[in-house]
Amino acid sequence: MILGKMKTNRRDFIKNMSALGILGVTYPLLSACGSKNGTEYLNEKITKIELFRYDINIPRYFSWGTWHNRQHLFIKISAGDFYGWTETPASKNNPDYKPTEWVAYLKQFKGLTIGEAQKLLASEQVLGSKRSLKMLESLDMGLLDLSGRIQNKSAVELLGLTGRNAVPGLYCILDKDEKKVREEAEKSIEQNLGHHMKFKMYGDETVDMKLLNTIRDVLGDEAVVISDVNKGYKKWESLDGLKSILNRFKENGLNAIEDPAHLKTKQWIELQKMVGDLTLIPDAPMRPAWKGINTMKAGMGRIYNLHPSTMGSFTQTAQLANKVKEIGAKVMIGDDSLVGPACSAWQQIAIGVGATWVEAIEKKEDSKIYLECLQSLATKKEANGYYSYNPAPGFGVEIDADRLKKVSELHIEV
Q1: Are residues 212 and 125 in the same domain?
Q2: What CATH number does the domain containing 266 carry?
Q3: Is residue 162 part of a domain?
Q4: Largest Cα–Cα distance in the chain?
């Protein structure tokens, strides 16, 4: 019955979009409207919250350590026949993980109206909040998805985002073994994602240069290649020393680099001037969104990374993206090794803000079981490796919950 209702809702939505002309329409949040009909959804009560533990047992390597396995939570928040999906990377290297803290957090929202839940959530999306950013952001996604479905509006439109052009997917390699890096680079070509590549650096110039050379050997000169060091370069005494390191990477084909080192705002700005056409990408300074809005400055880089699981708020992420564009810079949407419904949500944000690329994409191996449970998506990977968007209520992710329950390591109803 629920699925049938949602299919009808989606048909009505597409029909309405066609009649109105999607490119010329911007919907405000209905909570800001004065009409009774515009706020009726706020009175709908949250009747059910379910958690599905989805495990990934594929190692991922970083400059600071290794993920041997990960435990993600897919969360379904229901209000009667309507529901919203969300996803969070809840744990790593903990195959016996039980989401006790998540159950305790979500329990307080069950029985609240959507309006009450939004207010409670917003009260912690502020400077000085002690709440986990993952918890805040994940619940925000779920409520936004749920609200959009009830209102028959897309989440992108509810956020006031107007972009509709397809965005290139960014293939990411998390490995330091040259052979495996070469294999992954070849896979990116097979998956039509070899045009934009990101790889992890490890703060060791010799190791990192070998990885860069391996990737360039596979992808050639035309691909955009960026790296993420997670502030891994520490053995420098002046910006001149750091500049020399980065220039050597630039000379060997690196186009852009995220968080090369621990840098203060003035150092970011000066270093970007020093490295010429190598693009710096601030990531850590943007976290969370409500702090990034106040701390980011023009000139810190040419592209600013909005990283899932660290923004804390989709509404304030949209505001942050707008501020980045106001200073003449570009936005990228990063990834937290997402594998499920959050991938499509962040792809939609990327398209809505006109991002230069999106890293949060479904992974062939990591997302395999999830994709087998998937019924439909509002986003689509095109043949050229770009991600397009066909508006649907909420974030438009439809999952066979019964099948997901069977393949999950754990299912809990709050």
Answers
A1: no
A2: 3.20.20.120
A3: no
A4: 65
Total domains in the chain come to 2
Residue type at 412 in one-letter notation:
I
- Rounded distance, CA 325 to CA 322, Å? 5
Torsion of Cα atoms, 363 then 366 then 370 then 371, to 10°: 40
Measured torsion, CA atoms of residues 251, 255, 258, 261, in degrees rounded to the nearest 10: 20
Asked if 191 and 260 sit in the same domain, the reply is yes
Q: Are residues 303 and 343 in the same domain?
A: yes
Q: What share of the chain is helix, strand, coil (3-state, %, to 5)?
A: 40, 20, 35
Cα–Cα dist 378/345, whole Å: 9
8 A C-beta contact, residue 213 and residue 238: no
Range of the domain at 56: 2-155+404-413
Residue 66 lies inside a defined structural domain of this protein: yes
CB 346 within 8 Å of CB 315: no
214-to-63, 179, 180, 199 alpha-carbon distances in Å:
18, 9, 10, 11
> Is residue 161 in some structural domain?
no
Digit-by-digit pLDDT tens for the chain (414 residues) are: 334 444 445 445 444 443 333 333 222 343 333 323 478 999 999 999 999 999 999 888 877 788 899 999 999 999 999 999 999 999 999 999 999 999 999 999 999 999 999 999 999 999 999 999 999 999 999 999 999 999 999 999 999 999 999 999 999 999 999 999 999 999 999 999 999 999 999 999 999 999 999 999 999 999 999 999 999 999 999 999 999 999 999 999 999 999 999 999 999 999 999 999 999 999 999 999 999 999 999 999 999 999 999 999 999 999 999 999 999 999 999 999 999 999 999 999 999 999 999 999 999 999 999 999 999 999 999 999 999 999 999 999 999 999 999 999 999 999
231 shares its domain with 362: yes
List helix spans (H) across 21-175: 36-39, 100-107, 114-122, 133-151, 155-158
CB 113 within 8 A of CB 43: yes
Same domain for 311 and 409?
no
Please indicate, yes or no, if residue 376 is contained in any of the structural domains. Answer: yes
Same domain, 269 and 380: yes
